[in-house]
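Open question from group meeting: does this chain pack into something compact, or does most of it stay loose? Before anyone orders reagents, we agreed to write out a predicted structure and look at it together. Recording both the input and the output here so the notebook holds the full record.
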Amino acid sequence: METLKIKTQEELENYKASGEVANLDLRQWKGGYINLENAKTGHIYLNGAITGYIYLKDAITGYIYLNGAITGDIDLENAETGHIYLNGAITGYIYLKDAITGYIYLKDAKTGSIDLRYAETGYIDLKNAKTGGIDLRYAETGYIDLKNAKTGEILRNYTKEDVEFLKSLPIDKIKMENWHSDNGWLNCKSEEELHECGTAHCIRGWAEALYKIKHGKVVDNPNTLIPNLNHLFFMTDEQARKEIDHIIETYG
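Structure tokens returned:
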């Protein structure tokens, strides 16, 4: 696919009017805001660019590269895209409501609030990021890596079962560095034995161990357990315990 270098609003409007589908190199953009609403494009390159708002609502695109960019708000509502790279970017709000995307990389980024309601995405990397609130209600995502991230409130549509599961966990035996500290849990026949056996688990490790107690066998794919809580899995012990307390207090 051809890659077009576009620097100005006039060049962008000419591209949109042409009906052509091409990769767009906007790294030397000089036109303020970027309006690609309803557009169909290949990959979009904005690495290191300085722009105003970026409108991609209802767009269909390839990968979007915004590593190191400085932008206003980014509107991707209802868009369909490949992976989105925002590592080290500084942006305003990011709207991804109803979007379908690949992985979203926000490592070291500084952003406003992130709206992911009803979105379908792959893995989300927020390591070391600083963001506003993150709205994940009704979203379907892959793993969310929040290691060393500083965010506003994270909203999820937690179920009664999610909250009861968190209430059942012995806080002093949550160790996030490993799934299980040893294999003693495999011999446990009840929750009481599980709590007394001495094995510590990460949050998903606890879900796996409790599944075995309930069903009498080890789950085939533990990654399918407690999907609404997957944003907890990359937290430190302290972060996880704090978030568990917050979820129980808010939703319990």
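Observations to bring back to the group:
Helices lie at 9-18, 160-167, 191-196, 203-215, 237-251.
The mean pLDDT is 92.
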